[in-house]
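Q: Fold this one first, please.
A: Sequence and structure below.
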Amino acid sequence: MDRTVPAENLQVGDAIQLDRPHGTLRARLTVVQHRVHGIKFVGVNEHGQQCSFGMKYGELATRLDV
Protein backbone atom coordinates (compact mmCIF):
# COMPACT_ATOMS: atom_id res chain seq x y z
CA MET A 1 0.00 0.00 0.00
CA ASP A 2 1.46 3.37 -1.05
CA ARG A 3 1.70 6.00 1.68
CA THR A 4 2.13 9.76 1.69
CA VAL A 5 4.89 10.71 4.13
CA PRO A 6 6.85 13.86 5.01
CA ALA A 7 10.32 14.21 3.48
CA GLU A 8 12.09 13.70 6.82
CA ASN A 9 10.66 10.15 7.06
CA LEU A 10 12.27 8.99 3.79
CA GLN A 11 15.29 6.66 4.01
CA VAL A 12 17.87 5.11 1.73
CA GLY A 13 16.24 2.25 -0.20
CA ASP A 14 12.76 3.78 -0.27
CA ALA A 15 11.00 3.90 -3.65
CA ILE A 16 9.19 7.20 -4.00
CA GLN A 17 6.99 9.15 -6.37
CA LEU A 18 6.97 12.95 -6.51
CA ASP A 19 4.46 14.96 -8.51
CA ARG A 20 6.36 18.06 -9.65
CA PRO A 21 5.22 20.91 -11.93
CA HIS A 22 7.43 19.58 -14.75
CA GLY A 23 6.28 15.95 -14.36
CA THR A 24 6.28 12.93 -12.10
CA LEU A 25 9.53 11.53 -10.70
CA ARG A 26 9.79 7.91 -9.53
CA ALA A 27 13.08 6.85 -7.95
CA ARG A 28 14.73 4.54 -5.44
CA LEU A 29 16.76 6.58 -2.96
CA THR A 30 20.49 5.92 -2.63
CA VAL A 31 21.56 8.98 -0.56
CA VAL A 32 19.66 11.06 2.01
CA GLN A 33 21.42 14.15 3.42
CA HIS A 34 19.67 16.22 6.09
CA ARG A 35 20.61 19.89 5.84
CA VAL A 36 19.60 23.08 7.61
CA HIS A 37 16.90 24.20 5.17
CA GLY A 38 15.83 20.86 3.73
CA ILE A 39 16.91 17.41 2.60
CA LYS A 40 19.01 16.46 -0.42
CA PHE A 41 18.14 13.15 -2.09
CA VAL A 42 20.01 11.14 -4.72
CA GLY A 43 18.34 8.19 -6.36
CA VAL A 44 17.98 6.04 -9.45
CA ASN A 45 14.88 6.61 -11.59
CA GLU A 46 12.85 4.02 -13.50
CA HIS A 47 15.18 4.43 -16.51
CA GLY A 48 18.27 3.57 -14.45
CA GLN A 49 19.56 7.15 -14.48
CA GLN A 50 20.87 8.89 -11.39
CA CYS A 51 18.87 11.91 -10.27
CA SER A 52 19.17 14.35 -7.38
CA PHE A 53 16.63 16.71 -5.89
CA GLY A 54 15.81 18.54 -2.70
CA MET A 55 12.76 18.80 -0.52
CA LYS A 56 11.82 21.06 2.37
CA TYR A 57 11.11 19.57 5.78
CA GLY A 58 7.40 18.71 5.94
CA GLU A 59 6.99 18.46 2.15
CA LEU A 60 5.06 15.32 1.18
CA ALA A 61 6.09 12.44 -1.06
CA THR A 62 4.48 9.11 -1.88
CA ARG A 63 6.44 6.10 -0.61
CA LEU A 64 5.77 3.17 -2.94
CA ASP A 65 5.47 -0.45 -1.87
CA VAL A 66 7.45 -2.28 -4.52
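Q: Good. Now the second chain.
A: Here it is, same layout.
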Amino acid sequence: MTPPPAQAPQPSGARRHPYGSIRLPAPLTAVPVPVVRRPVGPPPHRWYGPRIALPPLSIATLRRGA
Protein backbone atom coordinates (compact mmCIF):
# COMPACT_ATOMS: atom_id res chain seq x y z
CA MET A 1 0.00 0.00 0.00
CA THR A 2 1.14 3.49 -0.72
CA PRO A 3 0.80 6.22 1.91
CA PRO A 4 -1.58 9.06 1.06
CA PRO A 5 0.06 12.16 -0.38
CA ALA A 6 1.15 14.70 2.23
CA GLN A 7 -1.08 17.73 2.35
CA ALA A 8 0.31 21.20 2.69
CA PRO A 9 -0.72 22.89 5.97
CA GLN A 10 -3.76 25.08 5.58
CA PRO A 11 -3.05 28.82 5.80
CA SER A 12 -4.47 30.34 8.95
CA GLY A 13 -7.14 32.63 7.57
CA ALA A 14 -9.97 34.25 9.47
CA ARG A 15 -10.61 32.23 12.60
CA ARG A 16 -14.12 30.89 13.02
CA HIS A 17 -16.00 31.48 16.23
CA PRO A 18 -17.73 28.63 18.02
CA TYR A 19 -21.40 28.08 17.25
CA GLY A 20 -23.56 30.83 18.71
CA SER A 21 -20.80 33.25 19.62
CA ILE A 22 -20.59 36.72 18.15
CA ARG A 23 -18.29 39.66 18.62
CA LEU A 24 -19.73 42.51 20.65
CA PRO A 25 -18.63 46.14 20.35
CA ALA A 26 -18.28 46.48 24.16
CA PRO A 27 -18.42 44.17 27.16
CA LEU A 28 -21.86 43.57 28.61
CA THR A 29 -22.70 44.90 32.05
CA ALA A 30 -24.89 42.94 34.47
CA VAL A 31 -28.13 44.59 35.52
CA PRO A 32 -28.89 44.13 39.24
CA VAL A 33 -32.04 42.13 39.92
CA PRO A 34 -34.34 43.62 42.55
CA VAL A 35 -34.84 41.41 45.60
CA VAL A 36 -38.51 40.66 46.23
CA ARG A 37 -39.30 40.44 49.95
CA ARG A 38 -41.91 37.90 50.90
CA PRO A 39 -44.45 38.82 53.56
CA VAL A 40 -43.70 37.56 57.05
CA GLY A 41 -46.01 34.80 58.22
CA PRO A 42 -46.85 31.20 57.49
CA PRO A 43 -46.55 30.04 53.90
CA PRO A 44 -49.82 29.92 51.94
CA HIS A 45 -51.56 26.55 51.96
CA ARG A 46 -52.36 24.99 48.62
CA TRP A 47 -54.51 22.13 49.91
CA TYR A 48 -57.91 22.67 51.42
CA GLY A 49 -59.64 19.67 52.96
CA PRO A 50 -58.63 16.31 54.38
CA ARG A 51 -55.85 14.29 52.85
CA ILE A 52 -57.00 11.02 51.33
CA ALA A 53 -54.63 8.07 51.24
CA LEU A 54 -54.39 6.53 47.77
CA PRO A 55 -53.47 2.92 47.04
CA PRO A 56 -50.01 2.36 45.56
CA LEU A 57 -50.01 2.44 41.77
CA SER A 58 -48.03 0.23 39.45
CA ILE A 59 -47.47 0.17 35.71
CA ALA A 60 -49.82 -2.81 35.41
CA THR A 61 -52.58 -0.91 37.23
CA LEU A 62 -52.16 2.07 34.93
CA ARG A 63 -52.21 -0.12 31.82
CA ARG A 64 -55.43 -1.88 32.88
CA GLY A 65 -57.25 1.44 33.03
CA ALA A 66 -56.46 2.28 29.40
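Q: Anything worth noting on the second one?
A: The helical segments are 59-64.
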